[in-house]
């Protein structure tokens, strides 16, 4: 994959988001957990009396209860976001005494389905506990898109309804964790705030003699390997780019939801992140060929190492890998593409 259609870049020009010090404290956090054990890397509630923007006192009380239970159960912070998003969608963060059929409480859990008695389910602490218990039993819940993780717990008739709640839920949880959303995975962040986006060997280099138009590196990794934001920044592009056309996410099936091949052009499902304030100015990173719609949205602030999607083979690709680009300016263009492996090594990331 060489370059993305210019139209894609034009669209993102309209997005200007300034981030502050988000992620500045991440460099000191080295998480000791291992994949699959989750609970070892739980975040802490640093501002239990926070008042997230836009919430009433009642909603705030319930949100605080959800994150407090998550912290107590040592659920990784991604689970807190999923829980808050689910409660926001199901009940508006109000402990409702009734709902569809026999649904009750913050998460609209049903006594007839074994969640507890109506009285128990009206208790936010109890309801959140039962939600997290169910979430932790979902295989790979930390790497699923929020909609799929929530659906696996809730069995909702409208799983895509949760998608709108991810960003507000992230903002709410962030209010309780000191202004940043800690990464919660065993990923080493370098002192300058960079991580390796996926593990795996570099199987194709930057602008090699045999591929002079290859503006990035290819990192070989199995399908569904977690792709992480290489550093803190703001998502500026989420598109399906294939065969000369770009499509914005719709929640429905797009041409990037299947494997591509070397005969068609395009980055497939891809994300670009703008990293303002690097010593030499803005940097943009690009992540191509994801297996399905990325887990982030345009305008979203991400931390170093935050999961953004899963390895796939969409677009111009002969097999699962991450095509990773680094650009020394915004917007990303062919002219400002630079060699990614050396860029990362210079910032303390072994690759
Ligand atoms: Zn490539």
TrEMBL record:
Known Gene3D superfamilies for this protein? Glucose Permease (Domain IIA)
Q: Which InterPro entries match?
A: Cell_wall_metabolism_enzyme, Dup_hybrid_motif, M23ase_b-sheet_dom
The chain positions of domain M23ase beta-sheet core read 213-328
GO molecular-function terms, A-Z: metalloendopeptidase activity
**Protein name (record):** M23ase beta-sheet core domain-containing protein
